[in-house]
Write a structure and sequence with these properties.
By secondary structure, this protein is an alpha/beta fold. The chain contains twelve helices and 25 strands.
Length: 545
């Protein structure tokens, strides 16, 4: 099933597992369970929802990159090489996508003894080639067994997904053997995917298979799902995950576009390496987390937590603890909107006053239960319409700080006169250049977030509620910015902007970078990790041109 009803023309298909505490997403042999802490909730202490996420890269649908098995060259360990530096933040983004070549392996499901994986051999790929065409650069070879479709279930039944095969109490997932990886490496296929729990056959071929493929510079998806929704060839496949610095692997979002002309266009962009990454890097020394104004108003800092030493890599496996609005992220409607039945008197008195002002000017503030996993990928994808608002930088007076210059309806209308009318399905992206100028390691990086919030420098340009209401009337369903937030630094103005976004059902994408490099007629895609009930959503933003 796709993420939207079947219709004529191209459609998005979500190929990602849902991440939730009761689901068997994390690798069970020593890694911590996924944890989800609703530490900020709409009420007297906050007008927003947010969560602390404790999430490991081996969780749900996930991305593997060469350093997962290839050590850094300076370690002099076995298999060490230059590809040991190809971390999740260093993979060229064109490699995340390509034409889906779906290899049917369903006959191998449960076709082995307990604790063993049925093996996908190169003969199966060669047979696929005889039936279709030769695979090569720009293709994404996907091994479809329907394993996740069958066994990804809430615990305790979900132990069948990974734990029972590891215990030798159930057959393991089908997977390619090292010879199959060597064959694909020889074909110069650099992107693979499987709907098995890992790209590693049990009991003893997991690491040999990883090394056989990753030594070619491959990246791949593990634990994809719903591959039966794709044709055997011709669909565009992509897998995007947060840009963790020095990541050996990452939680990710896999999806496809079925139907031309869009699928063919995106495939060609990847083949031509015409893809730009618009995502900031997540690192502990970068200003990726909300510091708040003053003292004690910060949200969860981004933390990189060592788990266990990997002697074969000379590195530590890590997990991450972060706020759901860290780095480049999604703002779903439910971020600032309560659910039905909420008593507005539950707000702090100051916020109650702001709400009366808002509703007097813009109408009733809405309610919503639309969290991250309910925002369709088709809503956060579309033609990029970049509105340059750099003229606003420096337009406020120091006496008024903390303040953000307001992006107005007049600026949007002026853009339309120059560049043509905004249309339903367009992604509006505000270009202020703020992140490009100020996203740098701390303490210098305080000028990105902390200084503007504390009135030490001007805030980043941000749209007011009137601009959002205007965009909604034009059919816009996603608005993005290269500032840290769409709300800006003034708390009252920010909340009204988020109320306008949520009430209109508009999804926001915040904290982009490199927006000035977007060519005309580029296609924007943002894909957040598919976390249930999440009011933010770290992810990856890219454009294809």
């Amino acid at each position: 099933m796709g993420d939207e009803p079947a219709a004529a023309g191209p459609r998005f298909v979500d190929l990602s597992l849902l991440v939730a505490p009761e689901l068997p997403g994390p690798w069970p042999a020593g890694w911590p369970a996924f944890q989800f802490n609703r530490y900020e909730q709409i009420g007297p202490l906050s007008p927003y929802h947010s969560e602390v996420l404790l999430i490991d890269g081996n969780n749900g649908t996930q991305l593997d990159v060469p350093p997962h098995s290839i050590p850094l060259p300076e370690t002099n360990l076995p298999n060490a090489g230059i590809l040991g530096r190809m971390f999740t933040d260093k993979v060229p983004v064109w490699q995340f996508g390509g034409e889906a070549c779906v290899v049917d392996c369903r006959d191998l499901l449960d076709a082995a003894t307990n604790g063993h994986s049925p093996l996908v051999t190169k003969d199966r790929v060669e047979l696929w080639e005889k039936q279709h065409r030769r695979v090569g650069p720009g293709d994404v070879v996907l091994f479809r067994s329907d394993y996740t479709d069958k066994y990804y279930r809430p615990l305790p039944d979900g132990r069948r997904f990974i734990a029972l095969p590891l215990e030798g109490k159930a057959p393991a997932w089908p997977d390619p053997d090292p010879d199959c990886m060597e064959f694909l490496g020889g074909r110069k296929v650099l992107t693979l995917g499987t709907d098995s729990a890992s790209m590693g056959p049990l009991p003893n071929l997991a690491e040999p298979t990883h090394i056989a493929g990753l030594k070619y510079g491959m990246v791949w998806t593990e634990s994809a799902t719903n591959l039966g929704s794709l044709p055997e060839t011709g669909a565009f496949y992509c897998m995007l995950g947060p840009r963790h610095a020095d990541g050996l692997y990452s939680e990710a979002r896999a999806f496809a576009v079925v139907g031309d002309p869009l699928a063919a266009r995106l495939i060609e962009s990847c083949r031509q390496k015409k893809v730009l990454d618009l995502s900031v890097t997540l690192a502990t020394d970068l200003p990726v987390s909300w510091p708040g104004a003053g003292v004690g108003r910060h949200r969860q800092p981004y933390l990189k937590v060592p788990l266990m030493h990997a002697p074969n890599l000379g590195l530590y496996h890590v997990t991450h603890m972060l706020d759901s609005h860290s780095g480049t992220h999604l703002v779903p409607p439910a971020y600032s909107l309560p659910t039905k039945g909420f008593d507005n008197k539950s707000y702090a008195p100051e916020v109650q006053g702001w709400l009366k002002e808002y509703e007097a000017q813009y109408g009733l503030r809405g309610t919503s239960d639309v969290t991250t996993e309910k925002v369709p990928l088709s809503q956060t994808s579309g033609r990029a319409r970049v509105i340059d608002v750099q003229s606003l930088v420096g337009s406020t007076k120091e006496a008024s700080w903390p303040a953000s210059p307001e992006i107005t309806v007049a600026m949007i209308e002026a853009f339309e006169k120059r560049d043509g009318a905004l249309k339903s399905g367009d992604i509006v992206i505000f270009q202020s250049g703020h992140t490009d100028r100020h996203f740098r390691p701390l303490p210098e990086g305080a000028i990105c977030l902390a200084d503007p919030l504390n009135g030490k420098s001007e805030g980043w340009p941000a749209p007011g509620p009137a601009a959002i209401v205007s965009l909604a009337k034009k059919g816009i369903r996603c608005v993005a910015t290269d500032g840290p937030t769409l709300g800006g630094v003034d708390p009252k103005q920010a909340l009204m902007t988020y109320w306008a976004l949520g009430t209109a059902g508009i999804a926001g994408v915040e904290f982009l970078t490199g927006v000035g490099e977007i060519p005309k007629d580029a296609y924007f895609v943002f894909a957040p990790v598919k976390i249930r009930d999440c009011h933010g959503g770290p992810g990856r933003a890219v454009v294809f041109y």
